[in-house]
């Protein structure tokens, strides 16, 4: 049995005049984060939620950690990371791991590591806020292109 890796785009955030990294979740985003937390709770028991320092990512990660009991780890480099940086930054972590970050890095990383026809599914569904790509990987330390199997795709609608 493999290890679990979940890549998540943060829940819906406010737009406005504040600096980008300070934008909090909207009320809808708070609901999305809670719904997402309930849907990934079983995957994340005993795991670690790694997140960007952006307020919207922190708030999304906190909802998951609160629901699942997972530990939180902020990685400042995730705010500006590309998909390769993201994969390098989590390679030493043990499963289950969730990464809460931003578009386009999250969907690009998902497309990079997935094997087979799953790329078409990811492209077709897009990556709206509060989307989670649940992967099974053989070994987190050897995470590379086409090394993961997409086990679940969770899209938490904005209501």
UniProtKB/TrEMBL annotation:
InterPro entries: His_Pase_superF_clade-1, His_PPase_superfam. It holds the Pfam family His_Phos_1. This is Phosphohistidine phosphatase SixA.
């Amino acid at each position: 049995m493999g290890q679990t890796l979940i890549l998540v785009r943060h829940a819906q955030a406010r737009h406005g005049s504040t600096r980008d990294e300070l934008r909090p979740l909207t009320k809808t985003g708070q609901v999305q984060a809670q719904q997402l937390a309930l849907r990934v709770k079983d995957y994340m028991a005993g795991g670690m939620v790694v997140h960007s320092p952006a307020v919207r990512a922190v708030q999304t990660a906190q909802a998951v950690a609160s629901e699942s009991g997972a530990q939180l780890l902020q990685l400042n480099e995730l705010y500006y990371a590309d998909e390769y940086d993201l994969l390098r930054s989590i390679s030493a972590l043990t499963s289950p791991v969730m990464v809460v970050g931003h578009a386009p890095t999250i969907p690009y990383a998902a497309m990079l590591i997935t094997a087979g026809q799953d790329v078409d599914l990811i492209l077709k569904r897009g990556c709206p806020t509060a989307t989670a790509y649940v992967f099974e990987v053989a070994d987190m330390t050897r995470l590379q292109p086409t090394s993961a199997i997409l086990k679940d795709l969770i899209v938490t609608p904005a209501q």
